[in-house]
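assembly run, all chains below
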Amino acid sequence: MTVVSRVDTVESAAAGGDAVQPWRELGLKEDEYDNIREILGRRPTSAELAMYSVMWSEHCSYKSSKIHFALWGENTTDAMREKLLVGIGENAGVVDIGDGWAVTFKVESHNHPSYVEPYQGAATGVGGIVRDIMSMGARPIAVMDPLRFGNLHHPDTLRVLPGIVAGIGGYGNCLGLPNIGGEVVFDECYQGNPLVNALCVGAMRIEDIHLASARGAGNKVVLFGAKTGGDGIGGVSVLASETFDEGGPTKRPSVQVGDPFAEKVLIECCLELYAAKVVAGIQDLGGAGLSCATSELASNGDGGMRVELDLVPLRDASLRPEEILMSESQERMMAVVEPQHLDRFLEITDRWDVEATVIGEVTDGDRLVITWHGETIVDVPPRSVAHDGPVYQRPLGRPAYLDALQQNETRGLERPVTGQQLRATLLTLLGSPNLCDKSWVTKQYDRYVMGNTALAMPDDAGVVRVDEETGRGVAISTDCNGRFAKLDPYAGAQLALAEAYRNVATAGAVPLAVTDCLNFGSPEDPGVMWQFREAVRGIAEGCKALGIPVTGGNVSFYNQTGDIAIHPTPVVGVLGVMEDVTTRTSTGFQTDGSPVFLLGTTRAELDGSEWAHVVHRHLGGRPPSYDLDHEQRLAGVLTTAAREGYLDAAHDLSEGGLAQALAESVLRHGVGVRVSVKHVHEDPFVALFSESAGRVLVSAVPGSEDDLLALVEDAGVPTVRIGTVDTSVDGLIVDHLFEADLVELRDRHTGTLPAVFGP
Amino acid sequence: MRIGVVTFPGSLDDRDAARAVRAVGAEAVALWHADRTLRDVDAVILPGGFSYGDYLRCGAIARFAPVMEELVPAAQGGLPVLGICNGFQILCESHLLPGALIRNDHRKFVCVDQKLRVENTSTTWTSDLELGSHIRIPLKNGEGGFVADVPTLERLEGDGRIVFRYAGKNPNGSYRAIAGITNERGNVVGLMPHPEHAIEEGFGPSTDGLAFFTSVLSRVAA
Amino acid sequence: MGRIVVDVMLKPEILDPQGQAVAGALPRLGFDRITDVRQGKRFVLTVDGDVTEQHLTRAREAAETLLSNPVIEDVVAVTAEADA
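ok done. output:
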């Protein structure tokens, strides 16, 4: 009896014929399909078609963004490259933080899955970024999550927010990673497209850096971790109709489900494998699963690879080879292991009860060959799949609405004048969704595990110790004001960079490197592509001006509902280094008698401000001006002052301006302050609510003010004394204008989220 | 003095517990869940975390680990044992302590700096604390609600075996605001909050946790 | 292959916050005649061959020691499931 082949082999593809393939249903364009045929010299097999369709998707190939990334390279000087141990292109960038320590960090998006299934979408987002960090050879040491939602009071926000927060906590807490910061932002533009960006930091000794390449013919390819199931393969099921199967297309889940326990075990297992020096190359399996891991490892290597797909351990025996290749089952890694190390490798995975299977080996030649029960179903040049995908030159054009938007300034809007009106405005803003207390969210995250957290939310940056002997550690902040970016994407991106840079310095660290998560609408909209390029240009040129390199990042396109795109939201993460994290500066006034200063210049810059948004529902005009040279000098003052112990507290000014910074600094420890804003700006409204950049509120340790003033003078940072920390003051007193007591401030600040989500 | 810290698959605060042990000058000995030995230690800590992912019930699977086959009789014979968070859950599942821990009443994970009232300073782990005083240490868990039937609760109260109670608002619905308890002999103590995260200035809300680890030193040395 | 089903419920006097959450959510679906909800666990144990008395006895032991915590849970049923 002849066995009918149920699998599409290279042999049948090469035999020619008129097979109609579902390339369109898989998301490919006609010219891309033709390109594949040209690369292979024949039609692709259905497995190859599946691989190309996923690896050439926007998410995996960055086809709309690639040409703009040339801007990173053009703006990176040799001095910037010096501190970079691994740059863009690997799973994550790695920087040298001194004393033989290397730190790797990256931020990624998991926006669409989190809208579909909030808990698992967010959870697997954390899982994915942690694996990226792990695959560099590092022990993950902290996570942070910039989150953006629609209107706080919209029913769909009630649907997604609690699930997303529970998912981040559920996964991150179980992994044993402290959550040390992030953002929670509400804006109507994100209603149909909430943004879940996940950041992870890891640390290792410099000599332990691992890379994702497969080198050395005869080295084994080992798949280890969870079994492979049908997670995340929704679209590929259309291929089932390609075959002789009469059952029809099967329904497969599109949502990936995470198991943090499996990942925790995987982390410990990997670290032991690294310590035993039995890993020659390593890659994590994320989007596009095996397709991605095999093609990237082979492409980065010096030869080819041969894989026997039927050796992959399966959770679901009915999976077809195309489905196995596409599966996005979580908690899986792929290692390249030299034959003499294989026994030790398997001994270690065994000890941790981690399933490990040799599924192939590195070969001579330059093809990725995958077989299924002896038949070849994939035979491709790996570079063509992993790195030489399509590059689009999408049209871009300044949006037609922008001129009118920029001309629509806040100048004419009614503003508070009297002390009582200013007081009411402060309280309104303090309780508004973006400025209110976020403990409802942050209490669900473990900040203490690993015992190295020196600073966490609500302070301006997260700080973790890396070296327990010396206290050396890192500070991280992520920031982006989407409204500023909508008004001017170039300026908005540079302002985001400036703010993250300033936050890291405010905590006392020296900024060192950058990562970014670029969240935008559809790249098919020339206006969005223009915003994208402007933002990339802004970050690249800003980094060059500040002398800190971009180490890697992520792009998320298609964040739009119908014609309405989200605000361009280029989230920028800055990492800084501290020689001793115990010298970090926190927000929150502490010591009675501490003189309070405002560093930086306040101008009438209310366009795009929280005041305009909350009070007038207005967005228009131009974002605040900024000066990167000033930011550098300001950062220098803050890091020196921290190291020398001059500071009682410091708080960066951003949304809500000086009023918000004062209120938060008082609420932090319940210690009061008395200030006057007459030297900040002649108009008290501007003094309190303007969102001019480059400003930090500091209180000096009593007796250190002269030293601090000498620093700011040397650095040319404009500074005004505005008041004194006063433990006899209940809350905040703004001379000649108003007073607000602690209870009232606290009630306003902390009541907002519980009123919506419960206690 | 040698204090063992057990690592189960999924344990998280084992390294932190070991750090706390070293901070008071004792030697931290790593104990592996699959090894049927306590390596002659003078005391054992069952640390916090999510052993076996908290699958089935928190601590339900860890309780059957080979190392527990040695630990249970040793504890019954007087070996000092401290169960922190997941460790407390494991002690209850193994019946070395009465009661059980269930999901927080508000159904969320919570991480806060928790104020506790010290109610028993005769145990091996609390002799260096001050009776009636308040300490502030981190509480971080999703399943921290202590429950037991009324006779058990009455017995615990009557025997003075409630070691810590939550001060202020009950953070998780624990019956009688019980945060930690001890066995009849006073050598086994379980509590939900984490003393090992309150031992170093700048890395926790206080250094109130150090006293737990100095207590056992003096008790064993004596 | 035979199957044994073990049903475990929290003891009636134990607080069930998850059941309460479900009870609170049902009215939102228009289900407003429900006065209480308790959430439990169902384990399906697959055995080689048919289910024997010995299988059931062992299953009951497993139910009492591992699958349930007698301090807070009751094993309400251990039954052989007829093959479909």
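Residues 210-221 of chain B form the longest helix (12 residues).

Residues 72 and 96 of chain B are 7 Å apart (CA to CA).

not gonna interpret more than that til we talk
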